[in-house]
Amino acid sequence: MEQYAIKGGNPLVGEVEIGGAKNAALPVLAASIMTDDTVYIDNLPDVRDINVMLQAMQEIGVMVRRDNRHKVTVNASNVTNLVVENEYIKKIRASYYLIGALLGKYKKAEVTLPGGCDIGCRAIDQHIKGFKALGAEVTIEHGLIKTKADKLRGAHIFMDVVSVGATINVMMAATMAEGTTIIENAAKEPHVVDLANFLNSMGASIKGAGTDVIRIKGVSSLHGTDYTIIPDQIEAGTFMLAAAVTKGDVTVKNIIPKHLESITAKLLEIGCEVEEADDCIRVVASKPLMHTQVKTQPYPGFPTDMQPQITVALALSQGTSIVTESIFENRYRYVDELTRMGANIKVEGNTAIINGVEKYTGATISVPDLRAGAALVMAALAAEGCTVVEDIYYIQRGYEDFHLKLHNLGAMIELVESERELQKFKLKIG
Ligand code: UD1
Questions:
Q1: Residues taking part in catalysis
Q2: Which fold has domain 22-228?
Q3: Phi, psi angle pair for 325, to nearest 5°
Q4: Hey, whose CA ends up nearest to atom 9 of ligand 1?
Q5: For residues 5 and 161, what is the distance between their CA atoms, to the nearest angstrom?
Q6: What's the pLDDT score for residue 117?
Q7: Is-cis flag, bond preceding 11, omega within 30?
């Protein structure tokens, strides 16, 4: 079983190259099957969720060629199967993007109900409402979502909650509906905009992505394209917070600073220096960190996917901080592990009351979900002594070469696969 062995105490210093956004790449891959032409997609992160999505596409007859680690060629002219039913596809939440894509193009799809990280109840009622508004029948049977329509018609849809997944799914289906669809109360995340840009590059007519109201004029067919995925906002944010937690000096490169504004603002509030350039941000943490308040919100608010990372920083900051999680109700499962490392955090409902401590101490900890996993690694990098991080496959779902990038910034971290390797690491660090 793979684990990370970490000896804390080294400030992270240097430059780190940020990869393509997993949460943009997943819907872009799904949407790539909406044309019979060849599609080239670059800047894909080489992470488990992406590889599962590529495998699911191949299983329904899509030709996928990996041109290099980050570039694929996709051709979906021979899709033979509109049923995506696999054990592995259940493991990724974004498998449901294949519903919107297949429904849009073939007017039929049957996809295993999604899993993903266990961070709270993850309803799909808004996806279903959107598909039905476009004229599709939707049923859930034997663990599958089944949708079909004689034809899809544009509709005026008001989302009851701001949902990234529902906005993306309905946008894909509506792209190939007859007439105009208006999605109100749409999600504004950078990956929603990236998918709209991708679909537009294939001949779709989508306006307003990045605002509350998205207007989609349906088209009867889409064509091939050559597209580069945007940089990963959350990977970048994670390394920015890692600089703060380890009292380091890190430049995150190949990013879009605008996407990171809510994170930059919090880093400034807690006492870090932040320097922005066109496509990079430098974070320097030379002073003691200070307390603050954070509430997670849909974009452009502070992202829920950065909540564990900022909590790890605030638990080492002077004074009492309050973090409010307003998107997912079960996103504090990592707090027990952090408490075992010395944090003083009390969770009441969706609020964490954090009394800053001087230091963490190393322990054997286990990862409950993807982003919490990255946050616990950050805590270990700042901790006194050695930490063993178990269940790291969650981290590998969304971070490419996480330990190698941290190692290049000066962290003492190794991926170990056996007790023997762990003992060797412990001997090496003394
Ligand atoms: C996506 C991201 C995830 C991120 C989340 C919020 C991907 C693959 N995942 O997840 O990393 O944490 O956005 O930024 O991109 N909801 C409903 N009904 C629905 C759909 C959602 O009530 O039909 C609720 C959810 O329970 C949640 C909130 O809306 O409370 C936001 O969920 P949503 O934006 O849909 O998250 P995901 O797309 O699943």
A1: 117
A2: UDP-n-acetylglucosamine1-carboxyvinyl-transferase; Chain (3.65.10)
A3: -100, 110
A4: 23
A5: 41
A6: 52
A7: no
